[in-house]
Automatic annotation (TrEMBL), chains A, B:
Top-level division of the source organism's lineage: Bacteria
Gene3D superfamilies named among the record's database cross-references: 3.40.50.450
Protein family according to the UniProt entry: Belongs to the DprA/Smf family.
Name of protein: DNA protecting protein DprA
Length: 396, 396
């Protein structure tokens, strides 16, 4: 069984974000994990780790209970494994126009590694945009489903403002803030990313059918669930960690004090991503969650898309730093980076795949070279891809 | 000439907040300052201090210029001194029902000492409430004159909420936020304080005539200007430092990015008072100044009167700390404090003057003893004055 088929199998076998399965995969690889589920025998070290993660248990009854619990978990995985048909899943997904990406693929967003053992085994993507490329400069925008007209207005403004400035909007495709921000983003030219809590082929909510179609042609739908999976409450919550992890920072627009959006905010903080919140009238309960985040000092108060960009842009270096003008002379660039630079056009932007062909290097290398060249001020991102930064390479 | 008459004279001679006159008074006392203006000869050390405060001047031309400037300043003071008639001013003010308080009086709010050389020489007060007592637990609430319906609604809620909880509201009596917060405060039982930028006998704005009448009967009007003085733009700005200095903290409700309310906010910060701002819709320009203060980390985001009280109450100790339950056993109290405690009634509150008579000590001593007793958890403030704290003195 190949790595890809094993990962498609794991999507069927374990619930998204199941850290115990993540542990098994980290120890034995996807194929090894599937084999161990098939054997049905939990290893002792797994029980030990389980005990650590559940330190509420009293020492006396711990061993028996944990062994029983692990046994039930393996039994439930094994039952699902019986009915899993990864070859059919893969064919069915591709027949529907989706593509599977797994860790190591050039489109895999490596920032998901920050999720540790809850990292997805694989993702189904459906849409024209390249997920990794789109997320290089991206902001998660989340908020209440029961948004007010004020909230949906602000969300649409943020969506359009971020997209116009080349920042991809990541959200959950739900009613209210999510829908408004995606629609706003579609008004710009930057891809927008919908992270679903169901299969990539399931339009939920169904009234967003045409929104999802527009995102497929100008962005990308993302799911860590197998095709056909229905959205459940736990899946919504566990999905939120992907929204936080894919982006450089999360901004909450309207959230009551008990809102799912605050769950995403919590993920952003624990992943060391930036967190921001948009204030609103103090008379509005749907802004109370935002105000609490600001008061607690957990979120920065932002009032415009520019302020959000200032916040996430300031992080600099690690993903796709802001151009600051050339800092490295051209002759200090590595030969590979110089080859990529030669292949970047001067006026109209071009995609990384075209640059890869022209430079004669692989796509992954192109993406990392473009990042370095942008940091050094030689190239810049435009809606259609990359181009030389005007005045950015005076010694060319 | 008495200290009081000298101070009334100085109110006529120098503009409010004139730090050069403050310097003169600090060096020679009010009578000495008047005498020196009459002599019309600036001292050399004054020129030196003047030079320090204007260090933009080039060294070469400095001495001549400063001497000329000081001369003009003394001449203008002397001209005003010619027409000043402090005996008439004092009689006229008292005839109108106002009272003069000067540093050292029991009603003088000693927190004004934080203003250093711009401390007022004296204050005209007009109204039933005791200024010093009212300001022990007080919050300044300021904001835009051109307030939105949202802003005036929130201001009225803050005024009523603070007043109901025993916190005096201090503001400037202007249109918009000021007026709304005073009206809200009048709905509670706690005095509200209007700090005017004109004479205590001048109703400005005149449409607030009846508001000022209500404040006189349930609070107090305050002015550092002589009777009859008209409001000018510099007087509004210099007045704002009194609003900030009298209170434990300032909260800004609606302010555009260029609003006079931000001037008060600046005074609050430089006086080490708490500063807070109320958020509003990001689509509203009159909330932009509040959001900027929050974003800059200069102001805490507050959304309710309770949150404002939490902020200023947490400062503790120095003015009128929150009751925290008795911390000192009764037999460790000084004999004087114990005498005051005996005179405080158990149920209905009574004013400090009554306590002073019953305890046989002067009003000033009563005020400081009550502060100490409140800090130790024995007594508490209620709308009508002070009473024993229920359960606050188990060993009585």
């Amino acid at each position: 069984m190949s790595d890809r088929l094993a990962r498609v199998t794991l999507m069927r076998v374990a619930e998204p974000g199941d850290a115990m399965m993540g542990r098994l995969v980290a120890a034995h690889g996807p194929q090894g994990a599937v084999a161990r589920v098939r054997e049905g025998r939990p290893e002792p070290e797994l029980a030990g780790w389980f005990a650590d993660s559940l330190n509420r248990e009293s020492a006396g009854s711990r061993h028996e209970r944990l062994t029983a619990r692990l046994g039930r978990m393996f039994a439930s995985w094994a039952a699902r494994l019986e009915t899993a048909d990864p070859v059919r899943d893969l064919a069915e997904g591709e027949r529907r126009g989706a593509r599977l990406v797994v860790p190591g693929d050039s489109e895999w967003p490596t920032q998901l590694d920050d999720l540790g053992e809850s990292r997805p085994h694989a993702l189904w993507l459906h849409g024209e945009a390249d997920l990794r490329f789109s997320c290089l400069r991206s902001v998660a925008v989340v908020g209440s489903r029961a948004a007010t007209p004020y909230g949906t207005h602000v969300a649409a403004e943020f969506g359009a403002g971020l997209s116009e400035r080349g920042w991809a909007v990541i959200s959950g495709g739900a009613y209210g803030i999510d829908g408004a921000v995606h629609r706003g983003a579609l008004a710009g030219e930057t891809p927008t990313v919908v992270v679903l809590a169901c299969g990539a082929d399931v339009a939920y909510p169904s009234a967003h059918h045409s929104l999802f179609a527009a995102v497929r042609s100008q962005g990308v739908l993302v799911s860590e669930c197998p095709m056909g999976a229905t959205p459940t409450r736990p899946r919504f919550l566990i999905r939120n960690r992907l929204i936080a992890a894919l982006s450089r920072g999360t901004v909450v627009i309207e959230a009551a004090v008990r809102s799912g959006a605050l769950n995403t905010a919590g993920h952003a903080v624990s992943l060391n991503r930036h967190l921001a919140a948009v204030p609103g009238p103090v008379t509005s309960e749907t802004s109370a969650g935002c105000h609490r985040l600001i008061r607690q000092g957990r979120a920065t108060c932002v009032t415009t898309p520019e302020e959000m960009i200032e916040l996430v842009g300031a992080m600099g270096g690690d993903l796709a730093p802001e151009p600051r003008g050339p800092v490295l002379p051209r002759d200090q660039l590595s030969p590979e980076i110089r080859r990529v630079l030669e292949a970047v056009p001067a006026r109209t932007g071009t995609g990384p795949a075209t640059v890869a062909v022209a430079a004669g290097v692989d796509l992954d290398t192109v993406l990392s070279c473009l990042g370095a060249l942008a940091a050094a001020g030689y190239v810049e991102r435009v809606p259609r891809g990359w181009r030389l930064r005007p005045g950015g390479s005076p010694d060319r």
